[in-house]
């Protein structure tokens, strides 16, 4: 830790990830993005990177819960019949994503909007519904983070260059320390995934899941985890 402008600034990883002030934000682990049979899969997107990232997220969630880290599940939503979309947003959902069918990505109440079976919130977790890429835009996430005295926001989930990067950037703009878990995020295009992580590494901390879990597990000695 160093002092700048009379303020203490975290410099060490263990300071950033202290369970006392860290929240794990699991972004959009939903069927339409991650599962075979979802809209992205039906649009021909490559789903091969999803299972490993889902498993990495699940292990992080287990570690976070055991260490007392508050877990926030972010759930992307869309209302039917254009009730929550603008023309600009519809262009992004369809033209920019190569989706030609009706743009019902994560339609509220649908199977596509549900969380994948491997990543289900429990009674100790908090679910935040969002309507745009960033989990901060038009939601109560900032309020909830402050209520729980969160200073560091650890981001995992989907999609790397989309909702993950958007949320991590906004976390920094809202004066949190952003941390992105490099092997617990994924998308459907390896080039975009690597390009996004390259940019994010230039702005904030991008760390492997094992390093984060090691810090959290050390604070929860009763949690015996196999390597």
Amount of beta strand: 15-25%
Please, how many domains?
Answer: 1
Mean pLDDT: 91
CATH superfamily: Isochorismatase-like
How many strands in all? 8
Query: Poorly predicted ranges (pLDDT <50, ≥5 residues)?
Result: none
Pfam family, one: Isochorismatase
Domain Isochorismatase-like: 23-197
GO molecular function, one term: hydrolase activity
Keywords: Hydrolase
What does this structure look like?
The protein is α/β, with parallel strands linked by helices and 227 residues long. It has one domain: Rossmann fold (3-Layer(aba) Sandwich), CATH 3.40.50.850. The protein has 9 helices and 8 strands. The chain has helices spanning 13-16, 31-34, 39-42, 50-67, 87-93, 141-147, 160-173, 190-201, 209-218; strands at 2-4, 7-9, 22-27, 70-76, 126-130, 152-158, 177-186, 205-207. A 6-stranded parallel beta sheet has the order 5-4-3-6-7-8. Strands 1-2 form a two-stranded antiparallel sheet. Strand 7, helix 8 (190-201) and strand 8 form a beta-alpha-beta unit. Helix 7 packs parallel to helix 8. The model has no long low-confidence stretch (mean pLDDT 91). Residues 23-197 form the Isochorismatase-like domain. Keywords: Hydrolase.
């Amino acid at each position: 830790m160093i002092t700048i402008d009379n303020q203490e600034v975290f410099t060490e990883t263990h300071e950033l990830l202290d369970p006392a002030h860290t929240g794990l934000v699991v972004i959009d682990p939903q069927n339409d993005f991650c599962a075979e049979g979802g809209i992205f899969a039906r649009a021909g997107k490559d789903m091969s990177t999803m299972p490993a990232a889902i498993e990495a997220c699940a292990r992080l969630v287990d570690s976070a819960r055991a260490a007392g880290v508050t877990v926030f599940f972010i759930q992307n939503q869309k209302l039917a019949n254009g009730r929550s979309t603008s023309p600009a947003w519809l262009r992004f959902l369809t033209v920019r994503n190569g989706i030609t069918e009706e743009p019902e990505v994560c339609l509220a109440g649908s199977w596509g909007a549900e969380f994948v079976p491997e990543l289900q919130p429990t009674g100790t977790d908090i679910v935040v519904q969002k309507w745009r890429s960033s989990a901060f835009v038009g939601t109560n996430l900032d309020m909830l983070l402050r209520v729980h005295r969160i200073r560091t926001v650890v981001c995992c989930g989907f999609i790397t260059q989309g909702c993950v990067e958007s949320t991590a950037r906004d976390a920094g703009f809202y004066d949190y320390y952003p941390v992105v878990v490099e092997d617990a995020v994924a998308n459907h295009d390896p080039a975009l995934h690597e390009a996004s992580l390259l940019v994010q590494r230039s702005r904030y901390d991008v760390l492997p899941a094992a390093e984060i879990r090691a810090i959290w597990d050390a604070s929860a000695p009763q949690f015996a985890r196999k390597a």
